[in-house]
Amino acid sequence: MRPGRALSVLLLIAACGGDDGGSTTIDGSIVGDASPSDAPVDDCYRELADASNGDAAEPTGLVVGGVARPICGAIDVDHAGVGGVLDRDRFAVTLVTPAAVVVRLSAPGSAGLDRLQLEITTATGATIGARVIGGLGVAIAPLPAGTHELTVTALGASAGAVPYRLVIAPDDPAARCPLAAVNPDYREADESAVGHRANDMVQVQATPLVTGATPSTSDRPEDTQRAVSSVGRVVLAGTSADVASAGDDYHDRDTFAVYTGQTTNFLELRAAWASAADLDVLVFEAEHPAEPLGVPTATVAGELIVTSVKPATLYWVWIGGSTRSATLPASYQLAVCGRELTPDAP
Ligand SMILES: [Ca+2]
Ligand SMILES: [Ca+2]
Ligand SMILES: [Ca+2]
Ligand SMILES: [Ca+2]
User: Fold this and answer.
1) Average pLDDT for residues 135-161, to the nearest whole number?
2) Which ligand is nearest to the CA of 196?
3) Ligand 1 centroid to 127 CA: how many Å?
4) CA of 180 to the centre of ligand 4 (A)
5) Which residues are bridge partners to 237 per DSSP?
6) 314-322/250-260 β-pairing
7) Which domains are assigned to the chain?
8) How far is the CA of 128 from the centre of ligand 4 (A)?
């Protein structure tokens, strides 16, 4: 399912009955013809417990598997806490059956905040995060059955409340940026003469995810001279070499500089490789190696991540061979697909 399609399918609430509302179910989970325009004017579950929902998740009663409903809340400004946290809102939602989901946070009025982020905390305690950029943050995750938390965290200051809309919907990860057998648009330069360290740029600790610049002053990102349009795809290729870790959780690390197009505000990235390696992909705005965008997921063979981005901006696409890898080197292809998504009205 394409993102726009996925996002037209709203959160389904079993409390209102999964058998009405014109939605269909697949494998007992979700889906249907519902679109925002089909919904009543006030179709939201409305945030009820702002003062306390930063400490304990607000029980929404929402169950993925019934009538579509988003969560409508606000970044409230009357109880700013420590560490620059302006508001934190946690919401509990339930999945009856395991499903791949996409969670989309729309907050068109959030430009003045220092940071707005979305986190999915699964029933098993795993966390998947996404930054809101340009009023939109998107996270994808495979979720087991159980009760999960969606957390909205705002840092900074605001003169007034900033409304937002939060939607959880079924996702089709295999349909995101499929990697057909194609000739790559750009191939990594041979870096064997410098121990495969010519393009590393970012060192990465995987758990928890902590990233920063490599100590080297001589590494450079691959200058691909490519821009990803909002309907386009750039395919990168390279080799993740069998070199010793430089102290982080990766062997070879390869970084490619790619521009986003004039209207591209969302990227999907998919990597595939042949050997029994475990490669991870991250995205950074150029020269911001401490701010990883997107979180690797393993919902399908290979690696798939998504992230909101700024249009017409240089990004670093990073791929590293995890120390979990059984076999290296690994020849990889890495597709970068552009999209233009419009945030929902809150
Ligand atoms: Ca709130
Ligand atoms: Ca709150
Ligand atoms: Ca390499
Ligand atoms: Ca490298």
Assistant:
1) 95
2) 4
3) 20
4) 24
5) 187, 333
6) antiparallel
7) 3-175 (2.60.120.380), 186-339 (2.60.120.380)
8) 26
